Amino acid sequence: PDDSATILSALASQDDTAVATLLESLPVEHRIKLWQDLPRDRKLDVLVEMRSDPREILIDATAETDWVALFSDIEAEDLLELMDSLPNRIVHLAYAELDAQQQRFFRAATQFDDDEVGHWLTHDLLVLPLNAKVRDGLRLIRRNVPRHCDTIFLVNRSGQFSAAVRLTQIFGSPEHVPLVELIEDNMTVLKGNDESTNASLQVQRSGYAALPVVDDSNKLLGRLDITSASELINEFYERQVMATAGMDEDEDLFSPVAKSARNRALWLGINLLTAFLASWFIGLFEATLQQVVALAVLMPVVASMGGIAGSQTLTLIVRGLALGQVSPANRKALMIKELKVGGVNGVIWAVVIGVVAYFWFTDALLGMVICLAILFNIVAAALAGVLVPVMLDKFKIDPALSGSVILTTVTDIVGFVAFLGLGTLFLL
Amino acid sequence: PDDSATILSALASQDDTAVATLLESLPVEHRIKLWQDLPRDRKLDVLVEMRSDPREILIDATAETDWVALFSDIEAEDLLELMDSLPNRIVHLAYAELDAQQQRFFRAATQFDDDEVGHWLTHDLLVLPLNAKVRDGLRLIRRNVPRHCDTIFLVNRSGQFSAAVRLTQIFGSPEHVPLVELIEDNMTVLKGNDESTNASLQVQRSGYAALPVVDDSNKLLGRLDITSASELINEFYERQVMATAGMDEDEDLFSPVAKSARNRALWLGINLLTAFLASWFIGLFEATLQQVVALAVLMPVVASMGGIAGSQTLTLIVRGLALGQVSPANRKALMIKELKVGGVNGVIWAVVIGVVAYFWFTDALLGMVICLAILFNIVAAALAGVLVPVMLDKFKIDPALSGSVILTTVTDIVGFVAFLGLGTLFLL
């Protein structure tokens, strides 16, 4: 109890994200204990900052009767963040706690998918009619300026977005000046169904604290502020990192063993199929392996050099696709360059490995066989490293997730068949 | 020429980052051509936004005599971003173009490493003495407010940071009110030698457009704004993604073949050593392989299941380390949980694979041998998946870079030795 009192007083000075990060790092029983001891008025804010999987543990541990109190200050944005983790009836409970305006915001946001900007809008806006003057702007600013809001949006009578004026322009100008004389040139306007990661990058580099978001008929829906944008981008990157191991970004450090095992089993199963496929190809050369056991000894070298070379190309292309830098216009040039790089590294390492194999097994033909197999596999890896992610992207499959497993299958099979095939030709 | 004129006019409406991204996506000759056609007053800003490797191509293509014109508006921040890409004498040239104040900023920043906040400061500040009033604040704001600046910093007579006041607080208050009555509680103050990624995360979640940065004696050095913070975090993530394939985040889509081959050769070489090590272990069982060729056929299955299971644990732990969620306090609990997950998946897949092998080779003993080897390797992979990154982190080696190659070496060797060793015991 003493211990937990110390922790709680230390947490009092930490922001919500820091508390969320700490909760995620605790084993389940400790996490639930600390959560129960957390001051009630912080619980909702902390929950919103957590990743889904660790959060669901706490949601399951919260009694049905406690939700009403937790939802006393809930806003549409909080509910949007939490709704996928909450049971349906709790979502309804929370929705009922929203005031009429927040309910409208919530309904508007759920019209958009969660990879669209419209889902992540902020509705705290400074808005004035197109004919407003500096005087009106100053009055508005003196009342209340929302977080990360550095412009006033001007709308026409139908609520369509027309232009934006920086707050700092307004302070410096005489009261009678019309705001339209102070508007920003070239401010990017986002659409509600813009893809959220790209839109977020535009916010990050705009130099504004937020960009306006409109619907198809140019009606102002809200704004995407730089905090939401940064969170969306961080999530995008985290998804990429986790995808390389077939996991998603919500994976909990301490999820229950059964759940965690289930999450990972699919990836292991897919990998098993590809491994058996590779084995089946090796099996075609059983007779060769029986006679030249050195081939079995050196198989991993051929497969792994191809795998590494291929994953280097793959990683570069996947990043290029994510940044919008790989397109039909430069695909051919990219392919040629990667083939050249593969050729250079292929020749170098093929010779090195051939020489080592020769001295190890004192067999010049074996050295030549592995030399050719490595060269062939590294060049094939470069080809696959470009083609696999480009094809996946074309079919709208995330290359960060599926790219490496497909690529490794290709390099394993090409490597084994080239090595054992050449071995059958030259060594029997 | 028509074509390039069209591109150039399209670029006129794009921001500097978009132009930088486009330049990076072009093959070298096209990149240099477009760069030469770019309006001179945009060149420096675009260059600053590019990644180092693709940028260096353009730097090399710029005539020595052109630099003076390019540097006519250069500021300390630009030079700090570019200096690692520029030859020393060009850095001196640029430094000479800075005014006295910018030179001072530049020297101050280079006192800090580029993984410290002090290196990435913005020096455009709103600063007032501690006894200033709202009237003084308003006068300051009306003159000029820098980008992403939502607070005025108050300093004492020795230039030490005391507190911050939100600009929006100032508009709403009568002119005679002392600013100290409006100060923000709990604003985080960064130190110049704070680690830059962590500090940037603090800026992102602070709700402010920038946080103040001080030196050891609390003297105000500058501020870290949310644009710089977001760029630093994006770079951190990109580094992690690229590190999984042994590359760095500056790798150019179209770097010259020789350079690209050299960049990747080291990683291939390290991988080759580990592959030969695995082969050497296989070589210990040559006699067994000669008699039971099915072992050679199934080897990739054992190795790859261990590799995948291990990399799942590794990826989770590496993220936990980066977020500060893995510590001596929860390491043991984490290890136990991962061993349990490994145990569950190990048993499931060991049985599946054992049954498949039994039917494939109609050999019950072989089925049992691979079943045990898989179980053993998946559990060892869980152990290594926790221990390897934790140890690397302790020795200050980046686990995102070196973790996977070490882990795969462990799972390969454990898998081969377990499988072939058990095969030797039971199948000969």
Give the tags.
homodimer, about 425 residues, mainly alpha, CBS-domain, 3 domains, 3-stranded mixed sheet
Layout of secondary structure:
Two copies of one chain form a homodimer.
Chain A: H1 2-12, H2 16-25, H3 28-37, H4 40-49, H5 52-60, H6 67-70, H7 76-82, H8 88-97, H9 100-110, E1 127-129, H10 134-143, E2 151-155, E3 161-166, H11 167-171, E4 190-191, H12 196-206, E5 210-214, E6 220-225, H13 226-243, H14 257-283, H15 286-291, H16 293-322, H17 328-361, H18 364-394, H19 399-427
Parallel strand pairs in A: 1-2, 4-5
Antiparallel strand pairs in A: 2-3, 5-6
Helix pairs in contact in A: 2-4, 4-7, 7-9, 12-13, 14-19, 16-17, 16-18, 16-19, 17-18, 18-19
One letter per element, helices H and strands E, the order of chain A comes to: HHHHHHHHHEHEEHEHEEHHHHHHH
Mean pLDDT of chain A: 93
Q: What CATH architecture of the largest domain in chain A would you give?
A: Orthogonal Bundle
Supply the CATH class of the largest domain in chain A.
Mainly Alpha
Greatest interface: A-B, 108 and 109 residues
CATH superfamily of the largest domain in chain A: SLC41 divalent cation transporters, integral membrane domain
Report the uncertain regions of chain A: none
Say how many strands of chain A there are. 6
Number of helices of chain A: 19
Task: Tell me the strand percentage band of chain A.
Answer: 5-15%
Described by its quaternary structure, the protein is homodimer
Count up the domains of chain A.
3
Any idea of the CATH topology of the largest domain in chain A? Tetracycline Repressor, domain 2
Shape of chain A: elongated
The helix fraction of chain A, in percent, is 55-70%
Structural class of chain A: mainly alpha
- The value of Rg of chain A in angstroms is 29 Å
Largest sheet of chain A: 3 strands, mixed
Strand neighbour order, sheet with most strands of chain A? 1-2-3
First and last CA, distance of chain A? 75 Å
